[in-house]
From TrEMBL:
Pfam families: PSII. The keyword Membrane applies. It is found in: Membrane. It comes from the Eukaryota. Signal peptide: none annotated. One of its GO terms (cellular component) is photosystem II. The keyword Membrane applies. Keywords: Chlorophyll, Chromophore, Membrane, Photosynthesis, Photosystem II, Transmembrane, Transmembrane helix. This is Photosystem II CP47 reaction center protein. It is a multi-pass membrane protein.
């Protein structure tokens, strides 16, 4: 859940910053002076050997370790979440009354593919 919140915030802030960014004067009014926070850090993601060793036209990432890790992590997170919510190997989820005054933990019966 935390990862989803952080990535959702970063994605929405990047789109917002892109919408309000004014590139007319990059010398006297760079993006960090315009209140940007996410995009300046995103632009540094490709820099590995300081500014001198950075290239935009470099090759694509073909390291299978990164992609296999992301795939396995996604499947594992979905699996743990599904087992937790259904109550199969976990407690279930918190179910409240319509007013949010009382509630209990119970398993739910999801409709996969509905």
């Amino acid at each position: 859940m935390h990862t989803a919140l952080v990535s959702g915030w970063a994605g929405s802030m990047a789109l917002y910053e892109l919408a309000v960014f004014d590139p007319s004067d990059p010398v006297l009014d760079p993006m960090w002076r315009q209140g940007m926070f996410v995009i300046p850090f995103m632009t540094r993601l490709g820099i590995t050997d300081s500014w001198g060793g950075w290239s935009i036209s470099g090759g694509t990432v073909t390291n299978p370790g990164i992609w296999s890790y992301e795939g396995v992590a996604g499947v594992a997170c979905f699996g743990f979440g599904a087992f937790h919510v259904t109550g199969l190997y976990g407690p279930g989820i918190w179910v409240s009354d319509p007013y949010g005054l009382t509630g209990k933990v119970q398993a739910v019966n999801p409709a996969w593919g509905a």
